[in-house]
Amino acid sequence: MLSEDDRRLLHILSQDCRLTAEDLAVQTGLTADYIKKKIKQWEDDKVIAKYGVLINYDQLEEDRVTALIDVKVLPQRGNGYDKIAQRFQKFSEIKSVYLMSGDFDLCLIIEGHNMHEIAQFVSDKLSPLDVIQSTSTRFILRRYKQDGIEFHGEEERPQRLMITP
Amino acid sequence: MKQYLSPLALNLKPSGIRKFFDLAATVEGVISLGVGEPDFATPWVMTEAAIFSLEQGQTMYTSNAGLVELRRELSKYMAKHQGLNYNADQEILITVGASEAIDLAMRALIVPGDGVLIPDPSFVAYAACAEISGAEVHYVTTSAEHDFRLQVEDLQMAYTPNCKILVLSYPNNPTGAVMTREELLPIARFASENDLIIISDEIYSDLNYGGEHTPFATLPYMWNRTLHVSGFSKAYAMTGWRIGYVAGHPDLIQAMLKIHQYTIMCAPIMAQIAALEGLKSGETAKQEMVMEYDRRRRIMVHGLREMGLTCFEPLGAFYVFPDITATGLNSEEFAEQLLKEEKVAVVPGTAFGPAGEGHVRCSYAYSTQQLQEALTRMARFVKKRIS
């Protein structure tokens, strides 16, 4: 179980991983030493798996396409879905692999430069795999919100008064 | 036309905040730490519930006391989260912000000439509402020496036998002070001994960073003599909806209801519906905001202390109240010069009562980037004045 302090620390880090241990100490009331030790431990235990940047590619003149590929597979005796998922995750083109409830079994997230590249990957690499029964590919057309950040449609809010009681 | 005005309206002092607001409006590019309201938008679940209700044509008056569903949910909420027991039918009144509740309480209780004890410094409306009702205001000085907690000795000093009401407001605006159960107990004893009615404004009770908030009405024998005032403005970021409530003994609430039904009729229905949704499903959003305020609070206290100002640790609301006397300036001079030189707006402590002298109120209901920039500018300003 996470302590309330550690939960706060992780929350702040997840919002901004560039903060130094000293910044974090000010913002949480914990000591910088404790924070350094804790972060090291989380890194070692792979609790902190990566420090990332959320990029809004729509703002750049950059060709980039993301597809969600739903996959129905034949689970294997003894291994269930794990073995198959491990096989998928080896492809560098596949950014995420999830086991899902519902009509399909696995959901893969693939990034490429254009639709053609992704279609090629699905038809050449994925579909021929004997464990796959069927796939359904959906392309992301526009990102409105990701990881809690709104990319579009944030309307101007009226200004607050400068001074109120 | 002034000859037509009542002496009451004529003599009512304009708020010290108003004066400073007018001044700040003349300066461009100001970073303001002067706002007493959240910078978050109301959680969308609540706004969405109100929009849906409007689409359904729910645009009528509600019962004078407020939607019965809201009062019932509030009754359950207070019992579960605060240990407060109020009957939804007779003991809860939904008001247009906590401000209306304070006004109603004063009007229902005060006979001209009654004394009202008000901690100093505190929110600007208490003394004004008391005066509008014809009361005599008795300020009870609080000080940084006791982290702006009300001391029974000071209460004793301010008390005269005509005093009938004591206003409490913890967590406090402008100081951010909170009071624990142990610290409130002697105040409760004093109230019993002197037969005082308490108007306890607990609008900031959810913004408490030091532990459990103690509602005053939960103290021994205090339920009968306490009007528990609160609202949705601060914790649910709903200032513009104007939705608050007051709970207390049915004799008091029913008297306040009479005044409310003639002057206001009822709180706006869409705000009541949004508030109801907040009680049902706004808890997570509220907790996230509280966590963010706590983080900003620490940044502010650290920054102010780093620049050499004495700053007690505020454990509630979203204000810090640093001591600025080390700069050789008084509150108003500090606020005015800071505004002109560095374009940062803070509110002079004296806007909240004479005991606010030597302090300024800095709100931290701003993004961390804005706070950092304001702190940088303030540090530059203070450095020139502290040797």
Automatic annotation (TrEMBL), chain A:
GO terms for cellular component: cytosol. Residues 70-142 form the Transcription regulator AsnC/Lrp ligand binding domain. It comes from the Bacteria. GO terms for biological process: response to amino acid. Residues 4-33 form the HTH asnC-type domain. The keyword Transmembrane helix does not apply. GO terms for molecular function: sequence-specific DNA binding. InterPro entries: AsnC-type_HTH_dom, Dimeric_a/b-barrel, Tscrpt_reg_AsnC-like, Tscrpt_reg_AsnC/Lrp_C, WH-like_DNA-bd_sf, WH_DNA-bd_sf. Keywords: DNA-binding, Transcription, Transcription regulation. The keyword Cell wall biogenesis/degradation does not apply. This is AsnC family transcriptional regulator. The lineage of its organism: Bacteria, Bacillati, Bacillota, Clostridia, Eubacteriales.
From TrEMBL, chain B:
Belongs to the class-I pyridoxal-phosphate-dependent aminotransferase family. It is an enzyme of class 2 (transferase). Its EC number is 2.6.1.-. Residues 29-377 form the Aminotransferase class I/classII large domain. SUPFAM superfamilies: PLP-dependent transferases. One of its GO terms (molecular function) is pyridoxal phosphate binding. This is Aminotransferase. Keywords: Aminotransferase, Pyridoxal phosphate, Transferase. PROSITE patterns: AA_TRANSFER_CLASS_1 (PS00105). GO terms for biological process: amino acid metabolic process. InterPro entries: Aminotransferase_I/II_large, AspAT/PAT-like, NHTrfase_class1_PyrdxlP-BS, PyrdxlP-dep_Trfase, PyrdxlP-dep_Trfase_major, PyrdxlP-dep_Trfase_small.
